[in-house]
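Hi L.,

You mentioned the student needs an example of a multi-chain input paired with its predicted structure. This one should do, with 570 residues in total across all chains.
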Amino acid sequence: MSGLLARRLVALPFVLLGAALLIFLLPRMAGVDTVRSVLRSRVAEAEPDPEVAARVTAELGLDRSWLEQFLRWLGHALTGDLGISFATRTPIAPQLGAALEVSAVLAAGALLVAGLVGIPLGVWAARRPGGLADRAVTGFSVLGVAVPEFVLAPVLVLLLAIAVPLLPATGWGTPAQAVLPVLTLAAFPTALAAQLTRAETLDALGRPHVAVALAKGIGGAQLIWRHGARLALTGVTALSGMFFAGLLGGAVVVEVAFGIPGLGRLLYDAVVGQDLPMLQSGLLAVVAVAVLAGVAAELLQLALDPVARSEAET
Amino acid sequence: MRRVLVALAVLLLVAAFLPVDALTTNLADRFAGPSLAHPLGTDNLGRDVLARLVAGTRLSVWFTLLAVLICAVVGTLLGLLAGYAGGAVGQLLQRVLDVLVAVPTVIVGLVVAAVREPGPATLLIAVLLTGWTPFARLAYQLTLRERAREYVEGAVALGAGPGRITLVHILPNAVRPLTAHACLRFANVLLSLAGLSFLGLGAQPPTPEWGAMLAEGRQYLFAAPQLVLLPAVAVVGVALLVTVLGRRLEGRWSGR
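Structure written out for the whole complex:
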């Protein structure tokens, strides 16, 4: 196995371990006294009793070497024990699971919109470069990249919840409440998908196999979709890292702006509330999701692209 | 058209030095409409909205410029280095970039804010940690491309060393694409910085900053939507302006 997937898989353990170590070291970088934070989260006492502090230190294993602490922490995290939140004083794992579920729905909705709208727009624009459709799509994609989520969210609320009261402005749980957040989050990936699909389709249409198809008398929609767009899709999935970064960063803003209890909101609340165990767990989840998304994108690319597949087999 | 764009960009840079009063509050004059004294009205504390927008260019536009410049210099140097060294060093850079490109600036900002106090320095660190990567990638690719050209072969034949070839021969040929790219990145960094300030991780009240103004105005969305719309227009307008400028430079310099 050569190619992208193999290289990624080789780098993967190092990336994961490095990320986990950075996340583990976060409280130290923040200069947080863990024992004090833990005690303060359990009993509302400003100055802890030194005897109690020493006992908690031993209990948490904070008197051992950092490597030992790291391995213990990692082991706990891998077995699903993420510790207890400073803020809610309840186990983190169920809260994180619920947040992940919410964010997954939000992200899936946005990606669905991006795929169903962005990719056809890109192909449509590529059919006649410089034409009216092309210019409209290019204009839309420039706008979609230049209008950030924190602008789009209040503007959509103003238009569709206040000026024309069609949809609820905040909250989560009903399908109607999901419409505005999904649209807000979808704007960037949709614009990006349209832009990339257009460029990739144009590139694909210039390849020799398309000339052969033309010579064989294949034209119109079949040529564009079977020979152009399919190749373009592989290029788009290859850039999934960009989509992912945009989606996750956007999710924080969207979830805060619309009051949605997802992963982005969880991270934000953890930072604002100085809830470091929660922040660490949220970040671990982000890394895990990023890695899974990366591998899924590679596999999708292998499924779509015969060239990459033959490279991977040799 | 290009002159208009350049003139607007210069105007934006100059605006930061205009002596405007963005902080004086006047509770008797809250949510005022446009008038001669306040051309764009006043906000929830009776402060002049135009003055706040103009003063906001300091943190929004100048700060972005600073961040992009640092990212461009650091990223370009690393890219040139890796491109010239090639082999294992190039591979290592590629792998690092593969990881960093998928890290959203907002998340980095959250983490940095957890470690430090929120504030402009926190913003700068967050943007620098991820912002150099696109420049490094582009500089790396450009170096590989230019290295294969005849003029580099000629310079090697004349006895030029790696440092001289990179700085004197390759870098000048990479400056134009990198400049065009910097314009496109400017919009991205501007939006990241404003987004972090929107989340309350950057500029703290009462400092005028577009993202923070937008966040504050959101509480009055029903009664005074202009408090959200005006900073929104400023952020999107500047992002579009610089993006269009960058695209034109790119098109012009690539000879299309």
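You could point out the following to them. The mean pLDDT of chain A is 82. Residues 92-127 of chain A form the longest helix (36 residues).

Best wishes,
N.
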